[in-house]
Amino acid sequence: MSTSTRWTLAVLAVVAALIVAFALELDDTPAGPAGSPGPQVSRTHRDADTPEALAGPRQRADLPPCPAAADNPGPKELRGVVVECAATGAQVDVARALAGRTVVLNLWAYWCGPCAEELPAMADYQRRVGADVAVVTVHQDENETAGLLRLAELGVRLPTLQDGQRRIAAALGVPNVMPATVVLRADGSVAKILPQAFTSADEIAAAVKNALQ
Questions:
Q1: Statement to judge: residues 24 and 56 lie in one domain
Q2: Does 38 map to a domain?
Q3: What is the pTM of this model?
Q4: Is 139 helix (H, G, I), strand (E, B) or coil?
Q5: Burial category of 8 from C-beta neighbours within 10 Å (exposed 0-12, middle 13-18, buried 19 and up)
Q6: H and E: helices and strands count for the chain
Q7: Residue among 82, 96, 68 at smallest CA distance from 165
Q8: CATH number of residue 84's parent domain
Q9: Are 61 and 142 in a shared domain?
Q10: Which of 27, 34, 79, 200 is 20 to 30 A (C-alpha) from 12?
Q11: Contacts by 204-211 with C-beta closer than 8 Å and gap 24+?
């Protein structure tokens, strides 16, 4: 075999390898930690979180029902956004559920340390303000079971929306940080987005008051 023939075969082999590698790359779905779907695969909750599997965690969390839908169309940014109520698995039209009331919307995830410190303060704040303000939390991870168990562990009983796709945060333009809090006026407008952690009900009360001025 001549030198030129050997070089030709070598070049063809390299080209073939590159074609195969390119095809595999196109067909590959990137994976996240521990083989979980990559960021382009966004789900409300895991396949494992069936109604049967969630029954026990829901009972342990013992969450109050999510706000009932109002006739008011609600915040324009959230119209058309539908997520699950963590307490029951029922579908929630978010804009209509939050309509006609001052709302403190708290966005968190079960693995977030500052969120775990802040959630009890949110519950304390809700006890203080009563019906004047509705505190609603949004769990932003597809592991719904873990979210429910974290709330049960913390003893926090607040209406909670399950939003593994972060549709609410995206609609409101919330930075990709947790915890984050959005204050909504009763007319549905966004008073303020607060991408920060709170450690006490007093801090929350002062921030909400300032946002609504």
A1: no
A2: no
A3: 0.79
A4: strand
A5: exposed
A6: 7, 7
A7: 82
A8: 3.40.30.10
A9: yes
A10: 27
A11: 204/104, 204/121, 204/122, 204/125, 205/125, 205/128, 205/129, 207/181, 207/183, 208/104, 208/125, 208/133, 208/183, 211/183
Residue 43: CB atoms within 10 A of its CB come to 11
Both 24 and 61 in one domain: the answer is no
| Bond into 67 cis (ω within 30) | no
Alpha-carbon distance 184 to 182, whole Å? 6
Do residues 89 and 122 both lie within one domain? Answer: yes
Residue-wise pLDDT tens for the chain (213 aa)? 554 445 444 444 443 443 333 333 333 333 233 223 333 334 677 999 999 999 999 999 999 999 999 888 999 999 999 999 999 999 999 999 999 999 999 999 999 999 999 999 999 999 999 998 999 999 999 999 999 999 999 999 999 999 999 999 999 999 999 999 999 999 999 999 999 999 999 999 999 999 999
Q: Are residues 13 and 55 in the same domain?
A: no
Range of the domain at 61: 51-212
